[in-house]
Structure formats: structure tokens, C-alpha cells
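User: Hi! Is it possible to get a structure for several chains at once, not just one? Here's what I have:
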Amino acid sequence: MMTKGTKIPDQMAALRQHKAGGPLQLEQVRVPRPGPGEVLVRMEASPVNPSDLALLAGGYLERSYPFTPGLEGSGTVVEAGSGLLPRLRLGKRVACSPGHGSDGTWAGFMLTTATNVAPIPAHVSMEQGSMMLVNPMTAMAFLQMAREGKHRAVINNAAASSLGKMLIRLTLNRDIPLINIVRNETQVETLKKLGAVHVLNSQSPSFIEELKSLARTLNATLVLDAVTGNQSALLLDAAPPGSTLVAYARLSGEPIKADPGALIGEGKKMVGFQLGYWLQDKSLLFKLRFISKVKKALDRELASTVNRSYPLERAEEAIAYYREHMSDGKIVLQIGSL
Ligand SMILES: NC(=O)c1ccc[n+]([C@@H]2O[C@H](COP(=O)([O-])OP(=O)(O)OC[C@H]3O[C@@H](n4cnc5c(N)ncnc54)[C@H](OP(=O)(O)O)[C@@H]3O)[C@@H](O)[C@H]2O)c1
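Assistant: Yes, the chains can be modeled jointly so their relative placement is included. Here is the combined structure:
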């Protein structure tokens, strides 16, 4: 094992959840040490994402309790297990995510595999770097899917999200028509100020007719659905024949409800998207180019707006605030001061 810079303590503060849906408690736990292929990251910052809320509620990813939540973040690699990649990452500022079922980023240190960390470019802050892996890569993946599928236009819902705003900037710069669906008029105004051309409010009485007409006029055959539930049925019905609906989250908490007739009679498809699985199939060369493109756009098209920062010990308050202000920008937990 090699260390750099920091004397690694035996104990650290970590947020722990003891049962699904249970409270978060700041506890002292043992600092894990890296084995072969692993690195120890001294954590700096971590956002609260919808996937964290799903994880805290239980039933989203398999895990044993108690555990430390937090699915992405940033920090410095302070210790490396054996292997070339861990050694290359030692001392680097990195964006990081935990391995499957492992403790996460809401702690003083996180142990993960060296393949789960990516160096943060010098021009990007630790705060922005903490949000580098999930949304920016997903937004870029959606753009790639639009290209590969030769889709002329795209529909996205929950479009006032950080990811939705990235997608707006990416598609505007490439002249790809994007139909944004939000759920109130404030969000319509916010997205129009960003330059979005087509913004529909799902609560408007004319929503379904407007969506159908616009989707068919623009030939929007790539339908990105983060809401699911009843909205999937509306989207599938409105989209032109041959469309693909990509379910990428379950914000409504509801299962997908859809008329099989749309799939059978109109050649429409429904598929799921998870960034990790999508990347798994890609070649090493594709991945390297893809990550390099994402990094270059991190301070522009793929930047995340931070609404508020909280220290780790106020995570419960941060999460409660986030639940009520999701469209206003990211909530970031600052861990470096622990
Ligand atoms: N599959 C993947 O690999 C992958 C990767 C990245 C992101 N995602 C998903 O992408 C989505 C956006 O992520 P983000 O971090 O950008 O989110 P975010 O910035 O935290 O914003 C969440 C958005 O979802 C909206 N929302 C919440 N519940 C909703 C509901 N029931 N119906 C309609 N809209 C709802 C919120 O609107 P209000 O302000 O009105 O509540 C807000 O605009 C999330 O669902 C996330 O899980 C998936």
C-alpha cells in the first residue's frame, strides 16, 4: 500500500443509515484500507441526487445495513492498493463513486476500486467535480443515443432538473430540437430563459394535444422518461410511430403504465437506461473519448448550478430542503471540513 499527503486516521465520521427509510446518524467508524486494485479517497464534496433519495428509501439497490449513503462525490486519493491504476491515481483530485453495495461518499473517507475514480481536470473545482460522473455523462450519453438512432428530435420530462438543463444546452448548440416537459409555470419560465424553444407544462389542460402535435411535427422519436407512471402512457401515445421510449428514472414512484397497442401497432419500443450498463458495452477507446468530451464541457454545457451547500452533519436538513427545491440547483454536502 502507498500513501500520499495525509496521515490516515484509524477512525472517521460517516453518515450511517441502519434501516431502509430510517434516519441518518453521524457516527465514528473504522477507516477502511485499500486492497489490490482499490484506492482510499479523502472526501471533499458530494451532491444529493434523486438516486440518493431512492437509495435512502430502500428497495433501489441491494445492500446490507448499516451503510454509508452517497453515490458520487469528489476528493483526493490518499492511499493506493497494489496495481498500476491505483498507483497512477495516488495524490490525484478525483470524482468517485462507490462499488456495488459498498459504503458511499457521505463520510470522511471512501474506499473504492481505482476504476471508479476519474481525475478532475485542473480547471474544474472540487465542488463541480463532485457532480461530474452521473449527470454530465448521462446528458452526453443521451446526445450519443440521439445521434446513433438518427432521431430528428428528442422529448425529455422532469426537464427542469440539472440533467435536463444540460440537455437543453447540448441540443441547442447542435440544433437538435428538444421538447421539454415540466410541471409548473415557474419551470417553463426558467427553461425559456435558458433558451429552450419548446417547453410544455404537464399540468396545462392543453398539454396532451400540444405534446402530440409538436412531437409529430418535429418527428421526436427519442423519448426520455424520468417520471414513468401514467406519464409513460401519454408519452408513448404522443410520440410518432417508430419512437423509442427510454425510461431512465422513476420520479413518480409508479410503475410504467402504457397501452401495449402502441408497442404492437405503431412499432414503438420501450427500453431502460442506466449509465453504468450503457457504458459497459462500449469499447475502451469509445470510453476514453467520451470521458474526454465530458470533461471539456464540464464548465460550460455540462456545468451544474449549486443552490446550497451544507456540512455533512446537517445532511438531514439538506435532504429535506432538496426535496422541496429540486429544480433550483444542486445541494452539495461539504465533507472536507470534517
Ligand atoms: N438512469 C441513469 O443512469 C441516470 C443518470 C443520471 C440521472 N438520472 C435521473 O435523471 C433525473 C434527473 O436527475 P438530476 O440530478 O438532474 O435531478 P435534479 O436536478 O435533482 O432535479 C429533479 C427534477 O425532477 C423533478 N421531479 C421530481 N419528482 C417529479 C415527479 N413526480 N414528476 C415530475 N417531475 C418530478 C423535479 O421537479 P420539482 O422541482 O417540481 O420537484 C426536478 O426538476 C433523476 O430522476 C435521476 O435519477 C438517471
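The radius of gyration is 21 Å. The pocket of NAP is lined by residues 49-51, 134-135, 138, 158, 160-163, 183, 226-227, 248-249, 251-252, 273-275, 326-327 (CB under 6 Å).

User: Great, thank you!
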